[in-house]
Every structure is written in C-alpha cells, then in structure tokens.
What we know:
Blueprint: E1 2-4, E2 23-28, E3 31-37, H1 45-53, E4 66-70, E5 75-79, H2 80-87, H3 95-103, E6 110-115, E7 118-124, H4 135-148, E8 159-165, E9 170-173, H5 175-183, H6 191-197, H7 211-221, E10 226-234, E11 240-249, E12 252-258, H8 264-276, E13 281-285, E14 304-307
Parallel strand pairs: 3-4, 7-8, 12-13, 13-14
Antiparallel strand pairs: 1-5, 2-3, 4-5, 6-7, 8-9, 10-11, 11-12
Amino acid sequence: MVFGLNGNTYDGLYDAVSEIGQSRTVRAGNEWILVFRTFTPEPDVIQDVKDVLSSFDIEDIRYIDSLLLIGSKKAVKVDSSLVEDLVGDRTRSPVIITSMKDEIDRDFGFKVYDRGPHRRLAARIPIIEIKDFKDEFTDRIKDNILNDGSITPDTLDDILSVYLIADETYVRIDPGMFFQEIFDLPLKVTAKTVEAERPTSPDGIILGESPTELVELALNRLKQHNIYRDVQFVEAAGLPYSFDALAVQEDDRVLLKYMDAPSDDDVLPMKLFMEALNVSKGWILTSIPDSDSQPLNKWEKDNISVLTINDL
C-alpha cells in the first residue's frame, strides 16, 4: 500500500535525515519506520526502495513497519509488505542468522552489528533449540552485557532488533523488553510490546511459550512459503486488526495470529479476513489452555486450527 502523506502526521520525521541518499530507522509511536531522503524531488517508489535496500540487510525489512520516502516536493509512505514483494525470496534467506551464529562465542557471547541505518544485537545461547531456554540464562546474558560496558541506556534507541540464537533455532525479541530487563528501564509500551509481554516473566527474558517463540516455531513449519510478518488490516468499521504473519505458497495461504485465550469474538475477524484474502487455513497460536476452558477444536470446520507449543 502506497499513499501520499496528508497533514502533519509524519512532520516530526522530516528532520530524521538531512542529506540526499541518507536513511535512518526511527521509532514513531507503535511503528519502526525507515526514513529515506530521495534523490528526486518526488519519490520514485520502485527505484527508491532499491536504493534503500542497498544500504542495509534485507532480512530487517521483516521488522520494519513502513518506509517513509521524503523528497523535496513530496513524501510517500510505503508499507513494508510491498517491499517484501519487490525483493522476493531474498527476505527468507537464513544467511544473516548463520553468519551471526558463526561469529559469536556459543557460551553466551554477544555482538552489536552496525549495518546500514540501524543496529542489531545478537547473543548466542549454548543449547540446541531456543525452546529449551532456561531462566538462569538471563543472568548470564545480563552479566556479560553489563560487564562489557559497550552498551548503555544512552546507546539503545537505534537498536532495531535483538536475536537470541541457539544451535538450530533462534528468536527475535523486542529490544524495549530486552533492555528493560537488562538495565531495569521503564518499558516503552507499544502495540507490539503489549502483545509480546503477556506470557513473559519478570525473572526471565523469554519463556518457552512466549508469543514470539510460538510464531517462530509456526513459521519454521512454513519455511517453504513466502512469509509476510506483522500484517496490518483495517476492518470495515475503520478499526485496525493485525496478524503475526501471512504465509503464501501458490494457492496455499495460512494466516497466523497469537491469542491468549481464543474466543468466538476473537476468531470472527480471522474468518472474515480469510474469506477476503482467499486464505486456505488459519492458525491460532496460544499458550496451553486451562483444563476447564472451552474446547478449542470447534473452529476446525472453518479451517482454523489452534496450536500450542506441543503442536509445534
């Protein structure tokens, strides 16, 4: 989706970049926005996207909500899903994660990568699967980062993502939540951090049943598909509605959403968007339900499956 900017909604981002050809990732409200100063007075979306992608790792587009292309006469905002369509299968490459894994000490080593307009942090965990993460690992990660001293609360704003990498799997977690745990900072509440915060524990960075890991495990089952993350829709009433991912492989389309406790009211929008997008299956990811909760297989007739950590 591409649209012209109206009013002053993004005026505050115009000063984020000052030179033509410069780009920078900034957080604005609930969004991560990649701001790019275009070479032409009016943005040429296709060419500008190519220019932007030449300056940073394509994998990161999965975690950026949108691009703001600013020319001297006009600016346009580009949804990140369009960028994924333009760059195709390159967004699914595991090369970046593999490279980070090879460069970092397996025994709780970490490294900050300064690539392009933003930074990422990766930490290695000495386990085979990230689902085997233990609470005591949190202290090891915290101690290593604090003792190193290269990361401080004043140097966090442009860190876009944090990866915890095991031997065979990894998880990306919200940097706000991660550094809140490390430095005991007040958590910046956004739509994404609220969703990710629910099943976590104040004593640990990540639990085996966190929404983040459930999504990663589910997407691993769909790794032959084209993956579109953090998919945003707008209902007829004008209300926003988000899904964790949409996986597409020819006629096979799967819509994924994490829900704490799925109900008929929660599932109805999924049914509607499945019909609108001609999606064949819907996956609801949730924590293991209480024994006295209602049966969760009642939506299977609508091609909606409820998956927990045990199913993935």
